[in-house]
Write a structure and sequence with these properties.
Blueprint (H helix, E strand, L loop, with lengths): L7 H22 L2 H4 L6 H8 L8 H22 L3 H32 L24 H15 L8 H21 L3 H18 L2 H16 L13 H15 L12 H14 L5 H19 L1 H7 L2 H8 L1 H23 L3 H53 L1
Length: about 400
Amino acid sequence: METKKFLCLDSVRGIAALCVIFSHSFLWFAPYLHTGVNPPSDFSVFIFNSPITFFFKGSSAVMLFFILSGFVLTRACVSSRNKFEYISSAIIKRYFRLNIPVAASIFICFTLSSLGLFTADKLGVTAYLSSHYTANVSFNEAIYDAVFGGIISGSPKFNYVLWTINIEFFGSLLIFAINGMCHKNVKLLRNFSLIAVIACFLFGSEREAYYGLFFMGSALAATNIYAAPSFISRKYFSIAIIFSSLYLLGYNEYTQWSYSYKWLFRAAHSLLSRLSVDVPVHVFLPSLGAFLLIYAIIRNESLASKLESKFLSFFGKLSFSLYLLHTFLLALVAPIINITLGGGIMPGLICAFAVIALTTMFSVPFYAYVDKRSISIANKMPMIFSKLVMQRIIRRRA
């Protein structure tokens, strides 16, 4: 199996994190771009009906995160020399790798809330998302969510994106489990992953469908991508795949009313009706788009090299920090912009760029002192656990 590192995928994470910021900004200022409900102008109707709404579809960006995680984690498992030792170590590390930055974000939110800096309710702003972080919270609640509530149950009290980190954590454990079960049989891993994808979409709820995305990434990682027919790597074919994937990434549960997606909604539901199956189409179609996008980028080395530019790699490096911190900056900035400029697409864009600039600025130290160090701390945990177990064994024997 190829052991090549796809640095371009880090840039994809960074771009996806920026898309989430645009998504949340428009939910504040122009929710009709997401839902199509009560658009105030012909231009708003035009945007909702357009096939290029992927850049502010945060749910699609999250699906991209999940598939990327399944892909990257599986490749790491498969390429490891001592697979079982690697997987057991990775399971221990995963909680600390994810939860240290999560816990830090929770305490940041608690501090800002305690200082009374979330002012949407005081300013009379009632936009969607504006009520988050305005309720009274206690230090004990922050401690609980920092240790358990955030990552284990996805509590949104101190950071409303933590429902995705909760799925990320358990999805990662599923990937480690399936890799351990298949040991070094890559073909079995690929087949098992594909079966798991089908099972998650056919027999599960929307949440289980999200777990299916990790298996999508795992199946792709267990496939020899470069063994595909040579015409797939041709420039124009890759471009066609990318445009198709971006189109699919613009789909959500509301786009059944969009002129650009009506036919797709009807075709998908007609097919499912004929097959007598119930699949969450609003998850499957954009996730298919995310899958195709990752495949096309990996397969097209020219595009992959462009995504490895210093500028995009910078955002890729900060992606987790951007994702965790942007909701607080949005809650601080959006009410002021809303009071000053009102609602609408232009104030939403102004807010998005302001939040991106501020979040990037604060993400640099957060990455250096929290995110990066969480990796270092997580890497030490298997050894610490091992020593604790050995000490307990020695005490029992004594």
